Amino acid sequence: SSFFAGIPMAAPIEVFHMNNLYLQETDPKKVNLTIGAYRTEEGKPWVLPVVRTAEAALAADETLNHEYLPVLGYEPFSKEATKLVLGADSPAIKEDRVIGVQCLSGTGSLRAGAEFLARVIGLKTVYYSNPTWGNHDLVFTNAGFTSLNSYTYWDQINRKVDIDNLIKDLDAAPPKSVILLHGCAHNPTGMDPTKDQWKQICEVVKRKNLFTFFDIAYQGFASGDPDADAWAIRYFIEQGVEMVIAQSFAKNFGLYNERVGHLTIVVNDKSVIPSFKSQMQLIIRANWSNPPAHGAKIVAKVLADPALCQQWFDAIKAMSSRIREMRAALRANLEKLGTPGTWEHITQQIGMFSYTGLTTDQVMHLVEKHKVFLLTDGRINLCGLNTKNVEYVAKAFDETVR
Ligand code: PMP
């Protein structure tokens, strides 16, 4: 007998499962539109040149050691991450109403923030968008949330944000529910609320005393402009809303496996900060005790140096432009083929993903017949396209939907 006998098999994590199917496929025509990672025109991962520069400088620094960081992380990184998301002239920064905590990428930031809300503040009800990133439910459940709910987000027929039903659902949420919002480049739909729609969301959040939790995993990567991508967060702050913000530096710095993340907390009364930090230290202590330094030092070095920062802006512009070109190319190829349906949504959506509208059956056909790998909800990562395969993918879509 074994203590481990009878463990039920968990469902596979879809995105990794599909990626593995791609890797195992031997047909040279295969195309990988699964995992949300940037790829170059050659289909290769990209280390940002500015990251290489910062890494070389760190490696040459003989004063560098591998001592533990403080529990709440590397302070220069926290300072820069906070400025990046709130804006250097944020009223919350000027009024000292901000706490910054380095965490393990976006996922760890979500986890630490959710656990703090559940354990310390006693908030146990969360609403996330339908659909949302596949990990939100699991993270909030494991952090101690007991009421997991979704609000309407997507209008499948018109392929846009269903703002009326979104507002209706938030209006019906019990006071003090945590409302999880994607700061920009909504995953998986690629469609964000307009500024007017954000204002409506903010209004109901305030009126119904809901708690705001922003998840921003694509700042700068979405539009090419980090300030534009943080507009919604900064608007909510202007409106006096308290919040926690989970930031990931995986995509916008290409530091996926370095696990660079940050939790920024904006409070209305700065006298709560010392006790907040003391409790947060216990949450972190029990999870990972203190965070890794390498990626945080890279990000801090780049963001604190105007010349390096400019190189980073150039890199995120290059990435977001290539993605936009692939959106245009995919749409143009589909329209040229006269593929049934409408395809403007591909160029209206932003960030890395397009929610194509393809059904699960169509996705399975694409995988089996054409060796084009995507998620069963129809989400594609545009980065998997390049000038050499986009026509092939369009033809595969065309044959599939006819
Ligand atoms: N939130 C969203 C919406 C995401 O898409 C991602 C990345 N897939 C994350 C958070 C966090 O990812 P990571 O932990 O790799 O930073």
Automatic annotation (TrEMBL):
<dbReference type="InterPro" id="IPR004838">
    <property type="entry name" value="NHTrfase_class1_PyrdxlP-BS"/>
</dbReference>
<dbReference type="InterPro" id="IPR015424">
    <property type="entry name" value="PyrdxlP-dep_Trfase"/>
</dbReference>
<dbReference type="GO" id="GO:0030170">
    <property type="term" value="F:pyridoxal phosphate binding"/>
</dbReference>
<dbReference type="GO" id="GO:0047801">
    <property type="term" value="F:L-cysteine transaminase activity"/>
</dbReference>
<feature type="domain" description="Aminotransferase class I/classII large">
    <location>
        <begin position="29"/>
        <end position="397"/>
    </location>
</feature>
<keyword id="KW-0808">Transferase</keyword>
<protein>
    <recommendedName>
        <fullName>Aspartate aminotransferase</fullName>
        <ecNumber>2.6.1.1</ecNumber>
    </recommendedName>
</protein>
<dbReference type="InterPro" id="IPR015422">
    <property type="entry name" value="PyrdxlP-dep_Trfase_small"/>
</dbReference>
<dbReference type="GO" id="GO:0006532">
    <property type="term" value="P:aspartate biosynthetic process"/>
</dbReference>
<dbReference type="InterPro" id="IPR000796">
    <property type="entry name" value="Asp_trans"/>
</dbReference>
<keyword id="KW-0032">Aminotransferase</keyword>
<dbReference type="InterPro" id="IPR015421">
    <property type="entry name" value="PyrdxlP-dep_Trfase_major"/>
</dbReference>
<dbReference type="GO" id="GO:0004069">
    <property type="term" value="F:L-aspartate:2-oxoglutarate aminotransferase activity"/>
</dbReference>
<comment type="subunit">
    <text>Homodimer.</text>
</comment>
<dbReference type="Pfam" id="PF00155">
    <property type="entry name" value="Aminotran_1_2"/>
</dbReference>
<keyword id="KW-0963">Cytoplasm</keyword>
<comment type="similarity">
    <text>Belongs to the class-I pyridoxal-phosphate-dependent aminotransferase family.</text>
</comment>
<keyword id="KW-0663">Pyridoxal phosphate</keyword>
<dbReference type="GO" id="GO:0005829">
    <property type="term" value="C:cytosol"/>
</dbReference>
<dbReference type="InterPro" id="IPR004839">
    <property type="entry name" value="Aminotransferase_I/II_large"/>
</dbReference>
